[in-house]
Amino acid sequence: MSDTITLGGELTVNRLGFGAMRLTGPGIFGPPADPIEARRVLRRAVELGINFIDTADSYGPHVSEEIIADALHPYPAGLVIATKAGYERPGPHQWKVNGRPERIRAGCEGSLTRLCIDRIDLFQLHRIDPAVPEDDQFGVLADLRREGKIRLIGLSETGVAVIERARKTLPVASVQNRYNVADRASDDVVDYCEREGVAFLPWYPLGAGTLSVGTTLEQVARRHKATQMQVAIAWLLARSPMMLPIPGTSKVRHLEENVAAAALQLAPADLKALS
Predict the structure, then answer these.
(1) 179 part of the active site
(2) CA 52 vs CA 58, 177, 212, 246: distances in Å
(3) Tens of pLDDT along 162-194?
(4) b/e sequence 81-116, b meaning 16+ C-beta within 10 Å
(5) Model-level pTM?
């Protein structure tokens, strides 16, 4: 496995996690086509040393959290489960932001029940709702933390200015933005997180990107006798010590390939080519 990262100065995990969004049906809605394989994926992830799992109440909705509990509860010592709230799911591929405090609180309460836990290790605001004052959204997160229902707080799909505003009232432990070797729009957020000791969780970490980047990935992969996706993960791990990739899959075979990428050491020439 890769080296470790400490979330919020409190929870140390291996620096390659698992994203559980794909353990659901088409459109991230309803149950998976193969629930037995979904549970096998989770159990194999733990066997391979993954001790950070990222999910959300909106995945399914509820399905991902329920499968995690079914497969892994009672949880092994040291396993950190992160979840999120802030979305409603009217149907497949439909995502409706809802950051009202009562919705965030209900999401937290539901996740506690579905995951069979008393406190959520890392609770993330899935999106900041532009229709709700930021202070109201940050305030309910602070309340839930004071009440002992969540341990650490994270944000998702946000910029540096918003993170700094949130940190005036919240101890932000993580930021989860879309980021991969071909999509680096959040470079400034990655750099900020590294300076400030905030974990950065890249979602869509295996985005293939443009043809030119894909060609470079293929060349680097051939040199290392690896897959392009393994190189994409290795690049993320090399990008910053605060990077915590969470590649997801619904197949054990793909999971094992992803985990093997943690041992892939890219040379300076590889990193330069991918830059």
Answers:
(1) no
(2) 19, 17, 33, 8
(3) 999 999 999 999 999 999 998 999 999 999 999
(4) bbbbbbbebeeeeeeeebbebebbbebbebbbebbe
(5) 0.95
Domain ranges of the chain: 4-208+242-250
Active-site residue identified among 59, 87, 179, 192 = 59
207: its two tokens: 């985005």
Pick the CATH number of 4-208+242-250 from 3.90.1210.10, 3.20.20.100, 3.30.1330.10, 3.40.50.2300: 3.20.20.100
Mean of pLDDT over the chain: 95
